[in-house]
Write a structure and sequence with these properties.
heterodimer; A: globular; B: 5-stranded antiparallel sheet; 9 helices
Chain lengths: ~210, ~230
C-alpha cells in the first residue's frame, strides 16, 4: 500500500544533518525544532531520523505538540500512522524497534513528562532529565516545539537543548518574527545550528502562477 | 546579532519584478485599457466624403500624374472657397469656410487602373463635407481641362452623396504610455507590499542575523507500507 507524506527533499535532509554533525563533532545532541508559522509536519523529523538511522545513528523524538515520544524513530510501518494520530492527546510512548525495549529509555519514568502547562513543563526537572536521559542512549534527541507557545516558553524549552533548528516558510514568515525569536534565544545563549527556508514544490501551473502574483 | 531594520534597497526592488510578474502584467493590462479609454476621449468626430473624377481619354499614367498635379493647385482651393461662399455653404457655427480649412482637409489619390482621381475631404462639420468635396471635384476638373481640353476631357464621374465617420482608432502612444506607466505602478505597489510585510524569501534575508540558512523544498514522499 502506498502512502504519501510531506517531508523535506533529500538534499535538505542532507544539509541539516551536515550542520548537526559539524556542530556536534560526534557528541550526542539535543536539538529543539522550532517552526515559526505552523507546527512542524512530523514527517520532517521522522525522515531526518530515518536518514540518521541509515547512518547508524539512533534518534529519539519528543513531540511537545502532540505530546508523544518516539524512541529510535524509524519511518516504518505504523510509525507515521501512530505518530500523526490527531485524536491521541495523551502521552503515548512508541517503541519503534526491538532493541529499544532492552537498551532504550525507561518509558515509564518519562510517561508524564508533558503533563501540565508549557511553562511548568519546560521549567520542570523532569523535562530536563528526560532529555538528558534520552541523550545517554541516543545520538540525537529531537524536541519538536509547538508553534502556539510564546517566545518565553520556546526559549525555556530550547535552553534545555544544545541548539535549535529553525523552520521558516518561504514567503509566509515575516523577517521581524524571525528576529523577535532570535533576540531572546541569543540572550539566553541558545545556538541556532541551522535554519531552513521551506518552499512548497508543485507541478501545478496554477501554483506557479500564484507564486508569481 | 544585527538589529532588525526594514530596508528598501534597489536590489530588493529589482528582485520584486520577477517575483510579482503576473501582478505587474495585470497592471499593464489595466494600463492598456486606460489607454483605450483615453483614446476614446480624444476621439474627434470627423466625417469624410469622396468624389471621383476621371477621363476615358486619360488612361496614360503620366497624364494622370499631370492631371493630379494640376488638381492640387491653390487656385482650385481658392475658387472652391469663393463658390461655396456664393452658395452660402457655411460651417455649423455660421462662419465661412476658409482657405486653410479646405487645404488641410482634402487629399487626392490617383487610381491608375481605373484612370480616376479620388478626391476626399475630412472635417468635423458633417453638414459641409459633401458640398465641399463636390465643389472641389468640380474645380479640379475645370483646372485640369484648362491644360489641354481636347486631350484630357476630365469630368466628375461620381459625386459624393453622403458623409461617413472616420471611426475609432486607438492612439498607439496612449496604449504604450499607459501600459508602461501602469506596469511600473504595479511594480511599485508589489515592492511596497513586500517592504511592508518584509517576508523571508531567501537565505540571504536572514543571514544578516548570523544564521546558517538553507533553502529547501518540501516534497511528497511515497512510502510503501508493509
Amino acid at each position: 500500500m502506498k502512502n504519501n507524506q510531506i517531508t523535506i527533499s533529500p538534499n535538505g535532509i542532507k544539509k541539516i544533518v551536515e550542520d548537526l554533525e559539524t556542530f556536534g563533532q560526534g557528541r550526542p545532541l539535543c536539538i529543539a525544532f522550532i517552526s515559526l508559522e505552523e507546527s512542524l509536519n512530523p514527517n520532517i523529523p521522522l525522515s531526518l531520523a530515518s536518514y540518521l538511522n541509515d547512518k547508524e545513528k539512533k534518534t529519539a523524538i519528543f513531540d511537545a505538540t502532540r505530546k508523544n515520544i518516539i524512541i529510535d524513530a524509524l519511518s516504518r510501518k505504523g510509525a507515521f500512522e501512530s505518530f500523526t494520530k490527531e485524536e491521541d492527546k495523551t502521552l503515548v510512548p512508541f517503541i519503534m524497534s526491538q532493541s529499544n525495549g532492552k537498551q532504550g529509555l525507561d518509558v515509564s519514568s518519562i510517561s508524564n513528562t508533558f503533563s501540565g502547562l508549557p511553562a511548568d513543563i519546560y521549567t520542570s526537572g523532569k523535562f530536563a532529565n528526560a532529555l538528558k536521559e534520552a541523550k545517554v542512549s541516543h545520538h540525537f534527541v529531537f524536541l519538536l516545539l509547538p508553534s502556539f507557545i510564546n517566545e518565553k516558553e520556546i526559549v525555556l524549552a530550547a535552553s534545555k537543548c544544545d541548539g535549535v533548528v529553525l523552520f521558516i516558510n518561504k514567503e509566509q514568515t515575516e523577517k521581524k518574527l524571525v528576529y523577535e525569536l532570535l533576540r531572546p534565544l541569543s540572550l539566553d545563549n541558545v545556538t541556532v545550528i541551522s535554519s531552513l527556508i521551506m518552499e512548497k514544490k508543485s507541478n501545478n501551473p496554477l501554483a506557479w502562477f500564484s507564486n508569481h502574483f | 546579532m544585527k538589529q532588525y531594520k526594514k530596508q528598501l534597497s534597489l536590489n530588493s526592488f529589482l528582485s520584486s519584478f520577477p517575483k510579482h510578474i503576473f501582478f505587474i502584467l495585470l497592471f499593464a493590462a489595466i494600463g492598456v485599457g486606460a489607454g483605450f479609454a483615453y483614446s476614446y476621449t480624444q476621439l474627434k468626430n470627423d466625417y469624410y466624403a469622396t468624389a471621383k473624377i476621371g477621363s476615358t481619354l486619360a488612361t496614360d499614367n503620366e497624364l494622370m500624374k499631370i492631371a493630379s498635379f494640376s488638381a492640387n493647385s491653390d487656385v482650385v482651393v481658392k475658387n472652391t472657397v469663393t463658390n461655396l461662399k456664393k452658395k452660402t455653404v457655411v460651417n455649423s457655427d455660421g462662419t465661412d469656410i476658409t482657405f486653410s480649412q479646405i487645404l488641410n482637409g482634402y487629399k487626392t489619390e490617383i487610381i491608375p487602373a481605373e484612370a480616376k482621381i479620388f478626391v476626399s475631404f475630412v472635417n468635423a462639420n458633417y453638414e459641409i463635407v459633401v458640398d465641399v468635396v463636390n465643389e472641389l471635384a468640380k474645380e479640379m476638373v475645370a483646372n485640369i481641362n484648362n491644360l489641354d481640353p481636347s486631350t484630357l476631357n476630365f469630368r466628375v464621374s461620381q459625386q459624393a452623396t453622403n458623409a461617413e465617420t472616420s471611426g475609432f482608432v486607438p492612439l498607439v502612444g496612449a496604449l504604450v504610455g499607459f501600459g508602461i506607466g501602469f506596469s511600473f505602478l504595479g511594480w511599485l505597489i508589489a515592492a511596497g507590499i513586500d517592504f511592508h510585510y518584509d517576508k523571508v524569501f531567501s537565505p540571504h534575508d536572514i543571514e544578516e542575523f548570523g544564521l546558517n540558512a538553507h533553502s529547501v523544498y518540501l516534497v511528497k514522499e511515497t512510502k510503501d507500507e508493509e
